[in-house]
Structures are given as structure tokens and as C-alpha cells.
Amino acid sequence: MPTCPKCGAEIEKNDLFCRYCGARLMTEPSKAPEKETHVRERDECFEVEHHRDYTGLISFGIFLVIVGIVFIANPNVISSFSSWTQQMTKAKSLLRPPQDFIYSAALFFGLIGLSDFFLAGVRFIAYRVTRRFVSNMLSGVALVLFSYLIFLYGRHDLTWQVALAIEVVACGLLVIVYSTIHYLFPRKPR
Questions:
Q1: At 70, is the pLDDT very low, low, confident or very high (cuts 50, 70, 90)?
Q2: Where are the domains of the chain?
């Protein structure tokens, strides 16, 4: 009985994939692969097309710019965070963060949310992948909303409990929207 060249398990003569490790099996025993490649098992199993995606690098660059903007807007953000954590340690309870730290957090999450909108557009233009576009847009909505809720908390319009509850409900609704879109518009077979 033939065996899998990758894991050595016994396989059937006409199997295209190993039932144990998922490796692609040669269709003709006499033919050897032209070039040995190292592919992740998941990619091999689902036959993922490989192309360079530079949006991750763009995303990292945007993240660095956003961190720089937050530090320009509030150069004392680290010391503000440090003193806040020291005060909570001494008080042994949860204390309200300093006002400048709250506004720095609102700025950070707002800019990250806006960058998700930008990256959604870049990914859509470059790859025409609507699923990734939708997920980036919805995560952008969640982050911009979170930023706005932090801002309202900073103005004393909301308690942190209410802000957190609103964000949890909003994230739940966005997950439902995303799942519904994926269910109603399944991926087309290649």
C-alpha cells in the first residue's frame, strides 16, 4: 500500500491529499515535483494564491505616524500614565485617568479608526477584495465610536461603565452585520 511522502501514513492509491496531514499527493508516482517549496499547510490545503501584500507595511507606517502625533499632542503621555498607575496602586482602587491622558487615548483610537478606513480603500483598490474591505470599514467604525465615547467620558458626559456598555453593544452589532454579509454573500468558488 502506498504511503504519504510527508508523514508516512498509509494512503489509498487514488487519494489527492493525505488524510492525516493534508499534504498534496503526487498524481503520477513517477513524476517528482519540479521545485520543492515551503508552503504553510493551511495555504496548501485551501490553495491560497500568493501575492505580496504591502498593506501590512503601510499599516505599520501609519501606526508609527499616529503614535508620533499622539506624542506631539501630549508629550507627557507616558509620565501621565505612570503617575496615574502609581496613584491607583497607592489607593488600591480604580481611579479616573488624568484629563490629558483621556484625550490622548481618544486621539489615538480615533486616528487608528480613520486609518482603517484608509486601509480599506487601499486594499479595495489594490486587490478588489470586498471581504477585507468590509472588515476594515467595520473595525474603523468601532474604533471611531470608541474614540468618541472616550471623548464623552473625558467631558464627564458618560461614566466609564456606560461608555464600555455602548462599545460592547456596538461591537456586537458590527459582528452581526459582518456575519450577515458573509452569510448572504458567500465567497465565490474559484
A1: very high
A2: 1-50, 55-184
